[in-house]
């Protein structure tokens, strides 16, 4: 292996954890100088400046009842800019992991324009309520689709994501990403993707996953979560997260990516609600679950998800674990459906609408194949 390739691999490994963007507002001379130096010192950086189309679209948004000509739009854009040169308007965002600098509208106008096609399914008043919400997602397989749906619809102002795992090639049957991301922490990948969609959305990463040592910090640090989305594989953390969320009156939602099963536990409304709908003993502890083996552990899984209520193919697959497969199967379509379903529930809960505790099914096979 030659030195050039070795150096390239080393550089790639150093950059694999980058997830923070940098903002440059060029009306500040110091920030203009900083961006100029960055581009000069790193000639491989690619610059994307499409501020004019964004301004034109913003003008159309501000005059929805008018059929503006291109000339009229150009005049209104000029008036909107005033004495500010187009290059100095808005903000330049540097994405270090991709070597891109992108010129976009600044936060208020960016958010207004990016979410404008949500109107009036999500009204402006509702968007302002939702941007005050804090949502946490534990587990980033199904949780990746959830986090992205929350971010794209902008159903919160802060998103906390937790997972200790790195991307494996086998994860890519359900996680939308590129092969060049194999081996990178899932938290990093999700944070990067959200930043490329909306760099103003606050994302806080817990790269070591969730444990008894940090669960309270995840739920409360920087302000108590409004909603917890639990999508982790660990049974002990499933139970621990619910016990702590209930103590703090935080609602919990979960999708299982089989038959579109969604659990909703409104601990915010019912402070003594049994966890997992009373399917497991109230006195069970995370430590006891970690010590469970074989049949006892599978019995707990059955209590939680109810094997008999699973799809026929999932039931057959469970019997093959450790024989022809290593773990339970998950399909991209089911994971994406779960992301959409959880986003819907989070939106409704965040807006104080009536979503009752319970177990729900969005079963596509039942909907489309019921008469076959």
TrEMBL record:
<dbReference type="InterPro" id="IPR000594">
    <property type="entry name" value="ThiF_NAD_FAD-bd"/>
</dbReference>
<protein>
    <submittedName>
        <fullName>ThiF family adenylyltransferase</fullName>
    </submittedName>
</protein>
<keyword id="KW-0808">Transferase</keyword>
<dbReference type="GO" id="GO:0008641">
    <property type="term" value="F:ubiquitin-like modifier activating enzyme activity"/>
</dbReference>
<dbReference type="Pfam" id="PF00899">
    <property type="entry name" value="ThiF"/>
</dbReference>
<dbReference type="GO" id="GO:0016779">
    <property type="term" value="F:nucleotidyltransferase activity"/>
</dbReference>
<dbReference type="GO" id="GO:0061503">
    <property type="term" value="F:tRNA threonylcarbamoyladenosine dehydratase"/>
</dbReference>
<feature type="domain" description="THIF-type NAD/FAD binding fold">
    <location>
        <begin position="120"/>
        <end position="256"/>
    </location>
</feature>
<dbReference type="InterPro" id="IPR035985">
    <property type="entry name" value="Ubiquitin-activating_enz"/>
</dbReference>
<dbReference type="InterPro" id="IPR045886">
    <property type="entry name" value="ThiF/MoeB/HesA"/>
</dbReference>
<dbReference type="GO" id="GO:0061504">
    <property type="term" value="P:cyclic threonylcarbamoyladenosine biosynthetic process"/>
</dbReference>
<keyword id="KW-0548">Nucleotidyltransferase</keyword>
């Amino acid at each position: 292996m030659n030195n050039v390739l070795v150096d390239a691999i080393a550089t790639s490994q150093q950059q694999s954890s980058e997830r923070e963007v940098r903002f440059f507002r060029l009306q500040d001379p110091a920030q203009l100088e900083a961006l100029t130096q960055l581009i000069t010192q790193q000639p491989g950086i690619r610059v994307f400046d499409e501020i004019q189309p964004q301004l034109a679209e913003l003008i159309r948004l501000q005059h929805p009842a008018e059929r503006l000509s291109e000339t009229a739009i150009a005049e209104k854009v000029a008036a909107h800019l005033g004495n500010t040169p187009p290059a100095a308007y808005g903000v330049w965002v540097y994405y270090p992991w991709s070597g891109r600098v992108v010129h976009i509208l600044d936060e208020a106008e960016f958010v207004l324009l990016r979410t404008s096609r949500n109107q009036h399914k999500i009204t402006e008043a509702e968007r302002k309520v939702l941007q005050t919400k804090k949502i946490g997602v534990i587990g980033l397989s199904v949780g990746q689709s959830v986090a992205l749906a929350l971010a794209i619809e902008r159903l919160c102002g802060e998103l906390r994501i937790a997972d200790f795992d790195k991307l494996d090639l086998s994860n890519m049957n359900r996680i939308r990403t590129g092969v060049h991301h194999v081996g990178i922490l899932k938290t990093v990948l999700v944070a990067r993707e959200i930043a490329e969609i909306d760099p103003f959305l606050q994302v806080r990463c817990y790269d070591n996953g969730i444990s008894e040592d940090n669960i309270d910090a995840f739920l409360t640090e920087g302000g108590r979560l409004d909603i917890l989305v639990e999508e982790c594989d660990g049974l002990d953390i499933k139970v621990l997260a619910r016990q702590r969320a209930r103590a703090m009156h935080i609602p919990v939602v979960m999708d299982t990516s089989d038959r579109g099963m969604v659990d909703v536990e409104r601990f915010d409304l019912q402070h003594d609600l049994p966890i997992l709908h009373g399917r497991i003993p109230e006195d069970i502890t995370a430590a006891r679950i970690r010590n469970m083996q074989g049949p006892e552990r599978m019995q707990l899984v059955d209590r939680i998800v109810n094997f008999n209520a699973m799809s026929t193919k999932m039931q057959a697959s469970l019997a093959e674990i450790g024989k022809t497969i290593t773990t339970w199967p998950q399909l991209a379509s089911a994971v994406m459906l779960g992301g959409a379903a959880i986003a819907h529930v989070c939106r409704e809960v965040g807006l104080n609408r009536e979503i009752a505790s319970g177990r729900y099914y969005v079963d596509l096979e039942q909907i489309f194949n019921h008469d076959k």
